[in-house]
Amino acid sequence: MRLRGRAELDAVVPSAARAVPLATRSRTVRRVVAIAGAVAAAVVAVVLVAPLLSEPQSGGSADYPYYATTAELEGVADLIVRGTFTSTARDDSEGYPRTVATVDVTASAKGPVEPGTTIEIAYTSGGAEDRADVEVGGEYVILLDDLADLEGDWPPTPVNIDQGFYTVVDGRAVAHPDNPVSLAPETLAALGLS
Predict the structure, then answer these.
(1) Is the CB of residue 115 less than 8 Å from the CB of residue 55?
(2) Separation of alpha carbons 149 and 94, rounded Å
(3) Which terminus in the chain has less CB density within 10 A, N or C?
(4) Cβ neighbours of residue 185 closer than 8 Å, sequence gap 6 or more
(5) Where are the alpha helices (H) located in 22-178, listed in sequence order?
(6) Closest Cα partner for 119 from 131, 108, 132?
(7) What is the C-alpha R_g of the chain?
(8) Rounded alpha-carbon distances, angstroms, from residue 36 to 30, 33, 42, 46, 49
(9) Under a CB-based contact definition with an 8 Å cutoff, are residues 172 and 193 in contact?
(10) Structure pTM?
(11) Distance CA 48, CA 123 (A)
C-alpha cells in the first residue's frame, strides 16, 4: 500500500479494525447474511402461513361465541327446544336491530319449558348476522342461553346465530351451512328427531 493511502486509511479506520484477519471478517459477514436470511424467511412464512391458520369455519361474530364440539354447544345452552315460529317482529328498542320471535314449543330436550308452551326469543338481525332463512311457520331446534331472562322482561337468545338454530326437515335437524356441529343422538331423540 502506498504511503499516502496508508495515511488516509489510518485517519478513517482505527488500527484495531485493520488488524482483524480477512477470514474472520468473512465469517462474520456470512453469519450476518445467514441471520438476515433466516429472519427474512421467518417473516415471509408468517405472512404466508398466518391466513391459513384461521379458526374453524364458524360464522360466529363479535357478539356470539363459536362452539367446536357437540358437548360445548349443548353444554352452554340453558334451553334446547323444538318449535314452530308463529311470529317475528323487527325491534330496534335496545339500540341495535334484532328480531323478536314467538315460538310454539313442541318438544324439549333441556330446560324447564314444556311442550305446548309458547316462548318469546330474540336474536340480532340485519347485516352479516341476519338469519333470513328463519321464517314464520318454520320448525326449528333452538339452543338458547340466558334462561333467567324467561322470568324477566328480556327474551332468551340463541347461543350463536349460526349454531343456535337447526332447521327441522323430514324429521331431521339440519345445521346451518356455517355450523359443522351436530346435535347429540340423545338430544335428537328427546326432540323426536333423528
Answers:
(1) no
(2) 15
(3) N
(4) none
(5) 22-49, 70-76
(6) 108
(7) 32
(8) 10, 5, 10, 15, 20
(9) yes
(10) 0.65
(11) 37
Burial of 23 (0-12, 13-18, 19+ CB in 10 A): exposed
Q: Which three cell numbers stand for residue 137?
A: 311457520
Tell me the pLDDT tens digit for each residue of 63-103: 578 999 999 999 999 999 999 999 999 888 888 888 899 99
What dihedral do alpha carbons 149, 155, 159, 164 form, nearest 10°?
A: 140
Q: Convert 120-129 to b/e letters by CB count within 10 Å (16 or more is b).
A: ebbbbbeeeb
* Joined grid coordinates for residue 154: 328480556
Q: Look at residue 46 and give its three-state secondary structure.
A: helix
Give the other-Cβ count within 10 Å of 89's Cβ: 11
Give, for 168, the enclosing helix (H) or strand (E): strand 165-169
The grid coordinates listed for 104 are: 310454539
Q: Give the CA distances from residue 10 to residues 21, 22, 181, in Å, rounded to whole numbers and listed in that order.
A: 17, 17, 75
Which alpha helices (DSSP H) does the chain contain, by range?
Answer: 3-12, 15-18, 22-49, 70-76, 185-190
Query: What is the grid cell recorded at 151?
Result: 322470568
Give per-residue pLDDT as tens, 17-58: 555 555 555 677 677 777 776 777 666 666 666 555 544 444
